[in-house]
Amino acid sequence: MIALTAGFLILASAQWPWGPYRPGYEPQPSPKPSPATVRCINAMPEEERYILSVGPYTRVIPYGQRSEYLTLEGRQVTLGLSNLYRERVANDVIAQIQPGYPHTILFVGTPSVSGTFEALVLRDSTAGPPTKSQAQFQFLNALVTKETVSIYLNGKPWSGAEKLEYGKPSKMLGISPRECEIEVRYASGTVLYRTNFTAQGGIRYTGVVMGMPGIVGNRAPRLFFYPF
């Protein structure tokens, strides 16, 4: 009788990995988190074309262009960079992502010079699209020189984007749909880039400042707009 009692006590106090044992209870595995989605943008202002790798995916993405959204499991992703001969040109970078959310990852730098690149990770909005009476913008500074810039709307500092530090996104900013003049300026007021842009109602834009100061053409500092 003593042995049986002792045996019962041992069983009742047994610990399972998911908690104390309870007779008749079948433990259920934790639900698997939803995957993250990631689109990548080539923000490296170089002539050479690269193969960008994002986890198991590889894409040849020209400067200033983006991939489609890619589905990824886990909370981090390995990013790589190689030339068109599939020779690695920089060390891999580990980026943190959040399951269940969409992200934009920018590859930034001049790997032909430095042999490195950086990854800027922006978690995209999951809110529904704005109403047809509003267009929304979120700005990100990805200049390779990492200088702080300001965004101007119709000749005046755009509140919420008037001091845009490298790698730090602005808040979501809304305006009524219309054609407007948008500028990128240094803190001194010097204009880096100016464009006339038609903001469409019901659209949300990621506006990325990228490029290399001191050069001309498409790789000079400018704004790229990516609707989502």
Put the structure in a nutshell.
The protein is built from two helices and 18 strands. It has 228 residues and is mainly β. Strands 6-3-9-10 form a four-stranded mixed beta sheet, with no helix packed on it. A four-stranded antiparallel beta sheet has the order 5-4-7-8, with no helix packed on it. It has a four-stranded mixed beta sheet with strand order 14-11-17-18, with no helix packed on it.
Topology (elements, then pairings):
Elements: H1 2-12, E1 15-16, E2 19-20, E3 36-43, E4 51-54, E5 57-60, E6 70-72, E7 76-82, E8 93-96, E9 102-108, H2 111-114, E10 118-123, E11 135-141, E12 149-153, E13 156-157, E14 173-175, E15 178-186, E16 191-199, E17 204-210, E18 222-227
Parallel strand pairs: 3-9, 11-17
Antiparallel strand pairs: 1-2, 3-6, 4-5, 4-7, 7-8, 9-10, 11-14, 12-13, 12-15, 15-16, 17-18
